[in-house]
Recover the amino acids of this structure.
């Protein structure tokens, strides 16, 4: 009887462990915001080996563990170790909205015959960036876990009418999915009860060499874009659509990043590296290739696909005083960002694709980051 009980207990333990091994998504408490809101962190483990840790604070991708050519995994996402650092820090891996990138004209734009004025930190602020005071990156989203071979996390946030000066009550849902093919899929949907403008993206800082493990200069990047939107010194678009041909922004064939990041070409030199909106080839609304980047040491290859019309390339042109994960110092150009989006300042540029969302014309955009290993 004693032996049978022990055997039965062992079988039950094995069954429980097996169930835990198969579990595609799990959640855990991750602390409390300064406003007293409870925050969680979720681990999504795909059948192909890709593992993402995502918080419902700002929809932040806290870590992204990717198989490398040696058969081990490496975290390719710059970030912090704890919630408090994300609250105080920047936009590592966060969802950016209501309007990603920049709105000029002193933070105003025309809509339905009226001039909408967004909230500003000071009366002389000429540009509202990353959604201003309504920024999604500092909001706590409502989470819903979905288990399975391709686990997903659904996050929802409601931005009330007038939030940050934006008109309309806006409900935004983002579903993160880790697929069996080692893809991280981001599916965005947004609906407003009245006309408004919306532009959402994720500001993931990708470091295929491993976070905190040097810069990206040896990586090779290809971008499927024949043109870009030139910007003035304040990084607002001039309204021109320019060809990449004959410029250092021609990434239609793979380019070693170190060969162009110190270019004297004005659009690069002004910003000490890349910070440029590229016009993704093909039809907006259709999922299509946007970029490909690879690291020679880890062998990791990342492909970007999107339905969005544009993609902001950003080569992390900044030196930081605040350390990253594990206290690691993050230096200049330690990552690359591929922020799929509508063009900057589109509400003030009728010649750009519209970012207006209404009750009858909701937003739906998809971006996929696919990982593999090269030979």
């Amino acid at each position: 009887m004693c032996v049978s009980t022990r055997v039965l207990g062992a079988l039950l333990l094995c069954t429980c462990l097996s169930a835990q091994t198969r579990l595609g998504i799990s959640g855990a408490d991750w602390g409390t915001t300064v406003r007293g809101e409870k925050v969680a962190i979720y681990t999504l483990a795909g059948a192909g080996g890709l593992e993402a840790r995502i918080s419902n604070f700002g929809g932040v991708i806290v870590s992204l563990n990717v198989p490398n050519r040696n058969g081990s995994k490496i975290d390719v996402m710059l970030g912090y170790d704890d919630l408090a650092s994300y609250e105080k820090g920047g936009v590592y891996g966060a969802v950016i909205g209501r309007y990603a990138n920049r709105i000029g004209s002193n933070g105003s734009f025309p809509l339905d015959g009226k001039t909408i004025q967004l909230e500003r930190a000071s009366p002389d602020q000429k540009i509202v960036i990353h959604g201003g005071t309504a920024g999604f990156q500092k909001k706590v989203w409502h989470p819903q876990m979905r288990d399975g071979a391709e686990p997903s996390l659904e996050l929802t946030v409601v931005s009330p009418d007038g939030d940050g000066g934006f008109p309309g009550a806006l409900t935004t849902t983002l579903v993160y999915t880790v697929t069996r093919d080692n893809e991280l899929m981001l599916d965005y949907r947004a609906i407003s009860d009245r006309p408004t403008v919306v532009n959402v993206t994720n500001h993931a800082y990708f470091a295929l060499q491993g976070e905190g493990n040097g810069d990206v200069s040896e990586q090779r990047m290809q971008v499927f874009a024949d043109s870009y939107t030139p910007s003035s010194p304040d990084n607002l678009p001039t309204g021109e659509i320019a060809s990449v041909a004959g410029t250092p922004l021609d990434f239609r064939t793979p380019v070693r990043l170190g060969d162009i990041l110190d270019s004297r070409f004005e659009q690069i030199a002004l910003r000490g590296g890349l910070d440029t909106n590229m016009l993704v080839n093909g039809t907006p609304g259709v999922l299509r290739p946007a970029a490909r980047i690879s690291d020679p040491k880890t062998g990791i290859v990342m492909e970007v696909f999107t339905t969005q019309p544009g993609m902001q390339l950003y080569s992390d042109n900044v030196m930081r005083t605040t350390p990253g994960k594990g206290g690691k110092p993050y230096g200049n150009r330690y990552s690359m960002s591929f922020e799929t989006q509508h063009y900057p300042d589109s509400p003030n540029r009728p010649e750009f694709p519209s970012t207006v969302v209404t009750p009858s014309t909701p937003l739906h955009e998809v971006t996929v980051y696919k990982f593999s290993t090269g030979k």
Q: What stands out?
A: Helices lie at 2-22, 83-88, 266-269. The two ends are 57 Å apart (CA to CA). The longest strand covers residues 363-373.
